[in-house]
Amino acid sequence: MEEIQCLVERKDKYIIEFDESVCNKEWMKKFRRYFYDFYTLEQHAQHIAQFRARFGSRHIEGYGVPLENGEVPYWADKDEVNRAINIRIISEDSDIYVDSNKRQE
Predict the structure, then answer these.
(1) C-alpha dihedral (13, 70, 45, 95), degrees to nearest 10
(2) Domain locations in the chain?
(3) 37-66 pLDDT, tens per residue?
(4) Which of 49, 54, 91, 103 reaches 20 to 30 Å from 11, CA-CA?
(5) How many CB atoms lie within 10 A of CB 53?
(6) Mean pLDDT of the chain
(7) Binning pLDDT at 50, 70 and 90, where does residue 105 land?
(8) Cα(66)–Cα(58) distance, rounded to whole angstroms?
(9) CA dist., res. 22 & res. 28, Å (int)
C-alpha cells in the first residue's frame, strides 16, 4: 500500500461575541462545574474558535449552537441555539497550504 504523508496548514479568522449579561462570572462558575476550567471570556472564545475550525458548524458541548453572523444556522434546532454567543466568520479556509511526500519503506 502506498503511503503519502500530508501536512495541511490553514487559517481561519473569527470574532466571538458574548452577551455579557448572560455570559458573566456566575455563568462561568456553573460552566466550570461540568466542563472546562475557564475563567475568562477570552478562554471561552479560544475554545469556541478552535472547535469551529476543527469541526465546522455544529453543537458545541457546554455552549449549544452559537449564532453565526448574528443568525440562527439554517440546520439548527431552535431549542439548541445559544443566542448569547455569536461567531462572526471573517474567513474560513481562505488560506490553505498542503505539502505532501511519499513515505519510503
Answers:
(1) -10
(2) 4-99
(3) 999 999 999 999 999 999 988 899 999 999
(4) 103
(5) 15
(6) 93
(7) low
(8) 8
(9) 10
- The Cα 54–Cα 38 span in angstroms is 20
CA 48 – CA 29 distance, rounded (Å): 17
Distances (CA, A) of 55 to 6, 9, 73, 76, 91: 19, 15, 15, 15, 15
* Grid cell 439548527 in the structure block, residue: 76
Nearest to 19 by CA among 82, 90, 88, 104: 82
Long-range contacts of 80-86 (CB under 8 A, 24+ apart): 83/19, 84/18, 84/19, 84/22, 84/23, 85/16, 85/17, 85/18, 85/19, 85/23, 85/48, 86/16, 86/17
